[in-house]
Amino acid sequence: MSTVLETTGLGKRYGGTWALRDCTLRLPAGRVAALVGPNGAGKTTLLHLAVGLLRPDAGTVQVLGRTPAADSGLLTRIGFVAQDSPLYPDFTVPDLLKMGQKLNQRWDSEFASARLERLRIPFDRKVGKLSGGQRAQVALALALAKRPEFLLLDEPVASLDPLARREFLQALMGGVADDGTTVLLSSHLVADLERVCDYLIVLQESRVQVLGSVDDLLAEHQVLIGPRRAAAQASPAGVASVIRESHTDKQSTLLVRTNGPILDPAWTTRDLSLEDLVLAYLADPSAGVLPGPSPLGMDLTS
Amino acid sequence: MIEFHLDGHSKVATYMQLVQQVRQSLRLGLIDPGDQLPRVREVAEALAINPNTVLKAYRQLELEGLVSARPGVGTFVTRSLAGPSLANQAALRHDLIGWLSQARAAGLDQEDIVALVETTLRATFQEGIAEA
Amino acid sequence: MIWMTWRQHRQQVLFVLIGMVAVSALILPTGLRMHDVFTDSGLADCLRRTGDAEFVTVGPGSNDCAELANQFLARFGNLQPLAVLFAVLPLLVGLFLGAPLVAREVELGTHRLVWTQGVSRLRWAMIKFGLIGTGCLAIATAYTLLLSWWIRPLNGANGSRFTVLIFDQQGIVPIGYTLFAVALGIFAGTVSGKVMPAMATTLVGFLAVRLLVAGVARPHFQAQRERKFPVTSQVEPNQLNGDWIIHVGIYNSSGVQVAANQQRSCRPESPSPSPSATPAGPTPEGCEEGLYNLQIYQPGSRFWLFQTIETGIFVALAAVLVILAVYRVRRRIS
C-alpha cells in the first residue's frame, strides 16, 4: 500500500518550545485519518508542515513522496481547509470558484458548484454573510474542487452546531468516496469522528502517542471486569499492557491492550468505543501505542 | 433499493450493522437476486460514514456469497436468504428450549443464563477465530 | 493571480480614483488662477529678466521682483498649507494600500487558503507586490506631474524650490516617497500580521524616515557653499534665484560671528542701518567697515541632483523592504 504522508523525527520549534517533536508516522493511501489531541498538542503544526505553510526545524516530512515546503507543484495535488475555514468575506461563491480556477491547474468548478447548489448555498451573497456551517461547506467544496489526492482539514467541525457538523461530515464522506481520497482531519472531539475515520493519530504534548488503524486498535483494546486483583499480581493471559485500572474492594476494572484472546473465565470482557480508547490514552501521557517492528495486531474480521 | 439506518447506541460495529441490514432485508424478501445495493458514495454521504466502512460491509457480503460487485456498475444481490435457515432455526430452537429447562432445573435464573451464554458465546467464537 | 489581485483591490482602485478626482478638483482651479496671476502680474517676466543672477543692484526699482513676489504670496500664500495636505498623500497610499496587503490576509487567515492553492508563495508575492507597486507608481506619477505644475508659481514667488514641503511636492521625490510608504506598509504587515499595528508602524516609520532625510541628510547631499558680502554694498544677493539658503549670519573682519540668523544691508550713502532682516533681530549696532554677511547655501542648480539623490534613497529603502517582505512571506508566516 502506498504512503501519502510520511514523517521522520519531524520537529517544529517556536522560540524555545517545541510545538511538535520526534514525530514519526506513516499514513497509508485511501485512509480517513483522525488527528486527535488536546489543544496545543501540535495538530495544527503537523498539518501546516504537511501542506508546506511551515518548514521543519528537525526531521523530514514527505507528502505523496515530495517535500511540501520546497515543492509548490505538490500544492495542486493536495487540498487543505485551515482552521475556521478562512474565506475572503467580500467574495461571492462564484468569485471563489473563479479564484480556484485561476490559481490551480486542476480544477473541477462544476463539481464544486453542483455540490453547493445541492446544499442550497446562496451564490449571490458575499460569503462573509453566510452561516458558519455554510462557510465550512464552501471551504470544503473549494478544497474538493482540486480533486486532491490528499485532503487535510484542521478542526473542520469544531465550531459547527450538531446539524451543520453532520451535514459537513456527510459532504466530506460523499466527496472523498468517488476518488478514494486520503483524508487527514484534526479534531479535539472524537465522538463525531468514530464512524468517519478508520485511522487514528493521537498527539499529546507535541509527540505521537497512538498510531494505527481504528479496527486494529479497537480489536486490541478491551475492558476487563473481574475480582479484585492485587497490584503485583500478573495480568491474565492475553494482556499485553494495562492502560488504566480502577479497583473497588471486590472488583477490578482494567483497560488493557491485548496480544491474544482473554479466555480466563474470571474476567468479563467489554469492547470499548474509540472515544473511550482515546480518552484513556490522553489521561495517561506515558502510555502509548506505536507500530513496532512487527505488524500491529491481527485483523479479526478476515 | 434499500436504505440503511444506523443505531447510534448499538455496540455492533458500523460495517456489521450494514451487513445485518442487508441480510435482514434478504431474509424478509425486501430485496431479491438482481437488485442493486446503494452505491458506496451514496451510503457514505447519507450516513456520514467512512466509505471504507461501506466497502468493508459489501466485501463481507460478497464473501458470504450474497452479493457480487460489478466494477464501475455497482453491487448486486446474487442470492436470497429466505428458505433453508428457517427450517434449521426451528430445530435449533427446539434444542435450545430443552437446554433452558435444564438450566432452570439446575437453579439458574434468567440473568444467570444470559451471563453464562454471553461468556460461552464469546469464548467459543474467539477460540474459533484464534484457531483460524 | 492578476484577476485575483484585481478582484481583491478593485474597491481600493475605486477609492484611489475618487481621491484623485477630489485632489484634481482642488488643484486645477487654484492652479489655473495662480498661473494666470503669476503671468499677468508681471512676476513671471520679472523673474525671467533677473534670472538666476547671484546679486542684484540695490536701489530704486531693484526690488521689483521681490515686491511682486510678496504681493503674489500675500494672495496665494494661504494655499501653501495645501502642500502639507499633499505631503500626506504618499503616506495614505502606504497606510491603505500597503499595510493591509499581507496583514489583512493573515488577520482573516485567508493566507492559508490562497497559499495552499496551486500558486507558490513567491509567485503570489511577486505578482501581488508587482501589480500594487505598479499601480502606486502610476498614481504617484500622475499626482507628481499635477503637483509640479500647480506649485511652479509658488516656486517662483518663494524664490526657491528647496523650501521644506515645497521641495517634497514636486519633481520625482513623491514617487520615491510613495513607493517607500507602500513597501513599508507591506513589510510592517508581514511582521505584525494585523492591519492596525501595521498601519501604526507605517505611520511612525514613514514620518520618522521622512523627517530624518529632509531635516538631517538633505542639507548635506552635496558640500555646502559659502557666500560673503559686505554689509555696506551696492548689491545684495538675489533672493529669488532659487538657492537654498541654509544658514545666514553677520561676521566681523576677524571672522567672529556677531549676529546669527540675520542679514544686514546698509546703503553706502546713508550710514543709518536699514535692516532687511530674515528674521528681524534686535537693532544692530551699525554698519562698520569689515562687517560682512555670510550665507551658507545649496545652489538652486542642484535641484534635480538633490531630487535624484533623495528619490534614490527612498527607492532603495523600498526595494530592501520589499525583499524582506517577500522573505517573510515565503519563510516566516504560516
TrEMBL record, chain A:
UniProt KW keywords: ATP-binding, Nucleotide-binding, Transport
Species assigned in the record: Kribbella caucasensis
Pfam hit, one: ABC_tran
Listed GO MF terms: ATP binding; ATP hydrolysis activity
Source superkingdom: Bacteria
Record domain ABC transporter: where: 5-230
InterPro entries (UniProt xref): AAA+_ATPase (IPR003593), ABC_transporter-like_ATP-bd (IPR003439), ABC_Transporter_VariousFunc (IPR051782), P-loop_NTPase (IPR027417)
Name used for this protein in its record: ABC-2 type transport system ATP-binding protein
Keyword Chloroplast part of the UniProt annotation: no
Database matches in SMART domains: AAA
TrEMBL record, chain B:
Presence of the UniProt keyword Iron in the record: no
Pfam families, per database record: GntR
Gene3D superfamilies listed in its UniProt record: Winged helix-like DNA-binding domain superfamily/Winged helix DNA-binding domain
HTH gntR-type domain sequence ranges: 12-80
Keywords per UniProt: DNA-binding, Transcription, Transcription regulation
PROSITE patterns, sorted: HTH_GNTR
GO MF entries: DNA binding; DNA-binding transcription factor activity
Highest taxon, organism lineage: Bacteria
Keyword Transcription regulation appears in the UniProt entry: yes
Name of this protein: GntR family transcriptional regulator
Species this protein is from: Kribbella caucasensis
Organism lineage string: Bacteria, Bacillati, Actinomycetota, Actinomycetes, Propionibacteriales
TrEMBL record, chain C:
Keywords from the UniProt entry: Membrane, Transmembrane, Transmembrane helix
Transmembrane segments: 12-32, 82-103, 124-151, 171-191, 198-217, 304-327
Region (Disordered): 265-285
Transmembrane listed as a keyword: yes
Organism superkingdom: Bacteria
Protein name per Swiss-Prot or TrEMBL: ABC-2 family transporter
